[in-house]
Amino acid sequence: MDFNGSDTIPGPRTEDQLPHTAQAAAKIVIVGGFGVGKTTMVGSVSEITPLTTEETMTQAGIGVDDNFGSASKTATTVAMDFGRISITDQLVLYLFGTPGQQRFWFLWNGLFEGALGAVVLVDTRRLEVSFDVMGRLEERGVPFVVAINSFPDAPRYDLEELRTALDLTPDIPIIECDARRRASSRDVLMTLMRFLHSLAMTGSLT
Amino acid sequence: MTPPQRQRRDAVPEPPTPQAGEDKPGNPERMYVVAGPDGERAELDLVTLIVARATDPPPSASPEQAALLRLCAAPLSVAELSAYLHLPFSAMGVLLTELLTAELVQARAPIVRKARSDRSLLEAVMNGLQRL
Ligand SMILES: Nc1nc2c(ncn2[C@@H]2O[C@H](COP(=O)(O)OP(=O)(O)O)[C@@H](O)[C@H]2O)c(=O)[nH]1
Ligand SMILES: [Mg+2]
């Protein structure tokens, strides 16, 4: 980016600016495989047009096509879409749509450690894509709910059948949603907040 | 049709470190910024809110610093700054440390998950979502 023409760097539109009273922000992550609807869900509830933060990751070229057989390094750019919801004049909530691969999670400080909780977005056509994500969240003690994004040609399972298949404890909410609809995505977030609230009541949040 | 079957995992005390050469990201170190006049260090978070202390950048400000200062005339998260400036999150640490040290910006710490969650916070969020 050329900062010499920095007068021209577009910032938030006036109506998208946070009030000066905004004291603190919290975050929620929406995690799932590629194409599962993360960006769609962020966009449907966000008060701003979703933005993208990028990070570059270098990794040794293992398993990467290399015609010359030499040790190569590849730089991967990882993008994360996010949106924002103003809760009160003091409090702001950010939603991050995060790729499912755990190696990306290190790129952003405290993305999962600091998040209030997570939504694991699942496509029943590729259920197993979400298995590793759920395992990682369990290992790290990140509370999560499961949202089944309904695609027209996806196999339909009974929710209790899915709970068994996903090996979820009875307390973990699992709901169907349509990430394109604001009300439906809002319900998913409400489900997560109610779940976090119930954990706070029982004091079982680790 | 039966769905594929997953197996639940137990919480581990320490998050597993990625395997060298395979999963090791290029920059896994924690990013810290100087957050107070007494030189105290705080972790820079994606949702730390940054506010400029003065409306006009000083003449000594670099073009990058000036661009950032103009953007956060009103509070803006580090994630939003990274997006508007087209700078990776890791570059924000350096830039913000300079500006915090020069007392040109103020950082407002994020709300992070705690062992015992703040119920009134969760209730506030639920009320906010209900109005959506
Ligand atoms: N039918 C249907 N399509 C969806 C839904 N959510 C997302 N899509 C579509 O699926 C595609 C991938 O969605 P996207 O949000 O980009 O996925 P991401 O990779 O997880 O961010 C897009 O073409 C969306 O329009 C949904 O709930 N129903
Ligand atoms: Mg996306």
UniProtKB/TrEMBL annotation, chain A:
<keyword id="KW-0675">Receptor</keyword>
<dbReference type="InterPro" id="IPR027417">
    <property type="entry name" value="P-loop_NTPase"/>
</dbReference>
<protein>
    <submittedName>
        <fullName>Signal recognition particle receptor subunit beta</fullName>
    </submittedName>
</protein>
<comment type="similarity">
    <text>Belongs to the GPN-loop GTPase family.</text>
</comment>
<keyword id="KW-0342">GTP-binding</keyword>
<keyword id="KW-0378">Hydrolase</keyword>
<dbReference type="InterPro" id="IPR052705">
    <property type="entry name" value="Gliding_Motility_GTPase"/>
</dbReference>
<keyword id="KW-0547">Nucleotide-binding</keyword>
<dbReference type="GO" id="GO:0005525">
    <property type="term" value="F:GTP binding"/>
</dbReference>
<dbReference type="GO" id="GO:0016787">
    <property type="term" value="F:hydrolase activity"/>
</dbReference>
<dbReference type="Pfam" id="PF03029">
    <property type="entry name" value="ATP_bind_1"/>
</dbReference>
<dbReference type="InterPro" id="IPR004130">
    <property type="entry name" value="Gpn"/>
</dbReference>
TrEMBL record, chain B:
<feature type="region of interest" description="Disordered">
    <location>
        <begin position="1"/>
        <end position="31"/>
    </location>
</feature>
<dbReference type="Pfam" id="PF05331">
    <property type="entry name" value="DUF742"/>
</dbReference>
<protein>
    <recommendedName>
        <fullName>DUF742 domain-containing protein</fullName>
    </recommendedName>
</protein>
<dbReference type="InterPro" id="IPR007995">
    <property type="entry name" value="DUF742"/>
</dbReference>
